Amino acid sequence: MTIYDFSAKDRNGTQVPLANFKGKVLLIVNTATGCGFTPQYKGLEELYQKYHDKGLEILDFPCDQFGHQAPGDDDEIHEFCQLKYHTSFDQFSKIEVNGPDALPLYGYLKEQKGFTGFTGIKGALMKAVVSKIDPNYKDNPDIKWNFTKFLVTRDGTVSGRFESTVEPEKIDAEIAALL
Hints:
By secondary structure, the protein is α/β, with parallel strands linked by helices. 28% of the residues lie in helices and 17% in strands.
């Protein structure tokens, strides 16, 4: 299997084969509109504007599994993102990333790249929050919170996973290297 064997519903309910993105560098992100990390939308859009013409696609998957921080339906989420952060990258339908109802794409992504650890100023806070939910969080590949980012090469290889605490601008050089 490769990433191109998967599909996902866009915000209008249309199945989109990820094979449509062959030859592109992908940044796949589970997002939320009411999270402390929501301002990362700004950095994501900046990366998209900087690199889209060179082959970057950002695939935004709203997810309400972490503290119910993605309220609203797909249209409300999309409107919020466009009005507040002027996002222009692809936004998909709201999904789950963990558990029995997880989008199969996310099962694959987690299988390819496990948890990489929290870093930075917010790292200690995230460790405290997540360890209360799952004391063994370090030992499984589950998505821990909103704004976990997966970087995929032009040939569909999952090359990196960046946890919530990694700001989008911190992966600029890695994206540039793949482009």
